[in-house]
């Protein structure tokens, strides 16, 4: 029995050694490197990834992680050395081009970055991510006209990607336009309902409705040649009497938008099918539209008053809150009506 013990120990050690992942195992390398990145130890992440690539030199996922680790470590030149090879690869994905764009933008290499985005969009013409980031690059160049064109293309090509709505809503808010900041802003808060950007866009939506009703002339300086815009403004104009002496509040907007949806579906739903307004109708039928309007406008207008509303309407609030957290909001293709860009 004593003679067997060393043999058993040796076999156990061999078994343990075989069970351990190889240093070049891709999944193990990625998990280790990501652990270092979460800790902010980017140098060790780079070290681990470079070692992993010694045994998996052509692995795209490890190369992307390495480029990102260099980016986080502000070693942009080395990051570009890794990522500039991505466009040549047949298996390059959207994220590959996105990483290269981030690195180029970090060193303000605008010419190469723009060239890369154009190439990327030929390969991925329906990528909302690429349109959005290309638009942000053009915005940084103060080329606002091309920036909004790119965000609009992103909305049309990839209607459920939130970033283009965010940027487009902000762009239109600072122009004389009274419609698209409201439309795009509300689509955005439904696609991205609980982020820091959501609170920012809720403020834009509230101020956008104030802007809409300020001078009483809703159609002034608006693109009424666009039939969607024209229909939107005509119905909103007929509801403006709800403003009264109370101004633009969550309560008045709930009343205005209730009437708007009822009239929209009696006049325009066939011409302009639109998922956002179908969602409004769904909420109305379920008795949750007031809570939805409070969630958007009450939080932006007066947070203590909104919190009090949730207490005095607890059942209504809980019903909507549960629904909001458990639904997926997506827009189908073909519901793009901004034809002016």
TrEMBL record:
PROSITE patterns: TPR
TPR repeat start and end residues: 128-161
Pfam families found in the cross-reference section: TPR_16 (PF13432)
Record flagged with keyword Transcription: no
Keywords: Signal, TPR repeat
SUPFAM superfamilies (UniProt xref): TPR-like (SSF48452)
Keyword Signal recorded: yes
Residue runs in coiled coils: none
Gene3D superfamilies membership: Tetratricopeptide repeat domain
Signal peptide: 1-19
Domain of life: Bacteria
Name used for this protein in its record: Uncharacterized protein
Natural source organism: Niastella caeni
């Amino acid at each position: 029995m004593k003679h067997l013990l060393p043999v058993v120990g040796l076999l156990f050690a061999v078994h343990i050694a075989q069970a351990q992942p190889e240093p070049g195992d891709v999944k193990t390398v990625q998990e280790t490197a990501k652990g270092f990145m979460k800790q902010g130890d980017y140098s060790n992440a780079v070290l681990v990834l470079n070692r992993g690539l010694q045994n998996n030199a052509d692995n795209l996922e490890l190369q992307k992680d390495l480029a990102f680790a260099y980016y986080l470590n502000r070693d942009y030149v080395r990051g570009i050395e890794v990522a500039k090879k991505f466009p040549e690869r047949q298996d390059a994905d959207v994220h590959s081009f996105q990483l290269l764009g981030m690195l180029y933008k970090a060193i303000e290499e605008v010419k190469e970055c723009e060239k890369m985005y154009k190439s990327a969009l030929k390969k991925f013409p329906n990528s909302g991510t690429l349109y959005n980031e290309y638009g942000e690059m053009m915005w940084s160049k103060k080329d606002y006209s091309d920036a909004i064109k790119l965000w609009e293309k992103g909305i049309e090509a990839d209607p459920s990607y939130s970033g283009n709505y965010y940027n487009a809503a902000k762009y239109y808010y600072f122009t004389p336009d009274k419609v698209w900041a409201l439309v795009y802003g509300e689509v955005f808060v439904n696609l991205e309902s609980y982020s820091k950007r959501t609170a920012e866009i809720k403020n834009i939506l509230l101020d956008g409705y104030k802007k809409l009703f300020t001078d009483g002339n809703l159609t002034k300086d608006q693109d009424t040649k666009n039939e969607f815009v024209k229909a939107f403004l005509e119905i909103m104009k007929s509801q403006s009497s709800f403003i009264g002496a109370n101004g633009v509040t969550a309560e008045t907007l709930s009343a205005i938008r209730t009437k708007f949806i009822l009239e929209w579906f009696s006049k325009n739903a066939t011409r302009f099918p639109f998922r956002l307004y179908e969602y409004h109708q769904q909420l109305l039928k379920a008795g949750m539209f007031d809570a939805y309007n409070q969630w958007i406008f009450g939080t932006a207008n007066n947070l203590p008053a909104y919190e009090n509303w949730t207490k005095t309407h607890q059942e209504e609030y809980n019903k909507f809150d549960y629904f909001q957290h458990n639904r997926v909001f997506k827009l189908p293709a073909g519901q793009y009506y901004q034809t002016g860009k």
